[in-house]
Amino acid sequence: MGVGKTTVGKYIAEKCTGTAFIDGDWCLDIHPFVGNQETKTMAIDNILHMIANYRKCSICKMIVFVWLMDEKWVCQKIADGISDMGLEVKNFTLVCDKNTLINRWENDKNCEWRTNEWLKASLKSLSFFSFFENCIDTSGLTIDMIADRIMYLISI
Q1: Cα–chain-centroid distance for residue 156?
Q2: Given this model, what pLDDT does residue 156 score?
Q3: Cα-atom radius of gyration of the chain, to the nearest Å?
Q4: What pLDDT digit, counting tens, does each position of 17-58 carry?
Q5: From CA 9, how far away is CA 150, in angstroms rounded?
Q6: pTM of the model
Q7: DSSP 23
Q8: Is 149 exposed, middle or buried (0-12, 13-18, 19+ CB in 10 A)?
C-alpha cells in the first residue's frame, strides 16, 4: 500500500483511449475490512466478472487492474481467470524504498487507509514484493515516468 498502484493505474487509463480501470479494492469493500480466504475469493470472482464484462465491450481496448495481492494463490487465480478469457496478462509489481513510502503516506490526505497501523504493515511487506516478477521500484520516479515505463514494457 502506498507505492502508487492506483495513481499510476488511473494515469495509464486516462492516457490510453478505450482503457477501463478496475481497482480490486472496489470488489472487496466490506466494513469493517476482513481480508480472509472467503472474502478474497469473493473479490476475485467480482474482479473476473468485471473484466469479462469489459471484454465484451467494443469500446474497451485495454483493462488496467490494480490491487494489493500479497498471496500467490490470489495472483494465480486472477491470472488463470484472465487467461481463460483469452486475454493476455501483463503484470507489474510496484515497490519503493522505506523513506519514499513514508513520505507518500504522510502526504496522502485522501485515503482512509493511511493510518499508522497500515503504514507499519506496508513497511513490513516491502521486502516481500521486491522478489516478484516485473518489479518496478518507483522511488524517485514521477507518476508519468512510472506509467511511461510500464507502457513501454507492454509496447503501447
Answers
A1: 19
A2: 56
A3: 15
A4: 999 999 999 999 998 889 899 999 999 999 999 999 999 999
A5: 10
A6: 0.90
A7: E
A8: middle
Strand, coil or helix: 67: coil
Residue appearing with cell numbers 485515503: 111
CATH code assigned at 21:
3.40.50.300
Average pLDDT in the chain: 92
Dihedral angle at the C-alpha atoms of 26, 48, 72, 63, nearest 10 degrees? -80
Expressed as residue numbers, the domain containing 29 is 5-153
What secondary structure does DSSP assign to 89-147, as a single string? ----EEE--HHHHHHHHHH--S-TT-SHHHHHHHHHHHHHHTTSTTEEE-TT--HHHHH
Give, in degrees to the nearest 5, the angle at Cα 74 between 42 and 65. 85
What percent of the chain shows pLDDT beyond 70?
99
Q: Nearest 5°: CA angle at 31, between 12 and 107? A: 45
Per the structure, the count of domains in the chain is 1
Spatial contact of 27 and 11, defined as CB atoms under 8 Å apart: no
Question: CA dist 136 to 44, 131, 133, Å?
Answer: 24, 11, 9
